[in-house]
Amino acid sequence: MFESLDNRPLGVDSEVEETPRPKARASTGFQLWPLIAGLLIFSGVATVHNWYLAGEDAKIVAREQFVEGHIYGRTTGKGQSVSYSFSYKGNDYRAIESDHPRMSVGDAVTVYLDSDDPRINSLVEYRLRSQQRHSWMVVFGCISAGSVLTLAVLWGVNEFIDKLSQEEPAT
Fold first, then answer.
1. What is the C-alpha to C-alpha distance for residues 123 and 170, in angstroms, rounded to an integer?
2. What pLDDT was estimated at residue 4?
C-alpha cells in the first residue's frame, strides 16, 4: 500500500553506503596564534624603530654640545611636556619635550644639541638616550624571539594533533 520514498516496498532493507566521516577535532576555543602573531609584528617593528633611533642618537654623541636653557611652559595631565628655550651661536631656539615631571616654569636646564644642527636637541644626553633606546631594542627583540618560538610550538602542536586525528584506531 505505502511505499518508501525510494520506491522500494516497505520492509525491504536497502543497502546504505557509508562514507567515512572525518574525525571532528576538539575545538580549542580561544585561538592564541593571532594574538601572538600581532605581538610579533608589533615587537618586530618596535625593535627596528629603536635600533634606528639608537643609531641616530649614537651619531650625534660625537658632536654633541650643551648649553643652558630655561623652561618657559609646561603642560600637565595625560601628556605632560615642558617647553624650553636656549641660544646657540647667536640664534634662539625653542623646543618641547615630554615626560619631565620635576621641571617647573623658570627652571634652568641643560640642553644637549647637535652642533651641526641645533634644531636637533634634547634635555637628555644623547649618549644616555642611545643606551635607553638600545635597551628597549633588546627588550622588544626578546619579545619577538619569544613570539616566534611560541608560534613555532603552537604550529608544531597543531601539526601533531592533526597527525593523531588522521590515524585509524587499532582494532
1. 72
2. 53
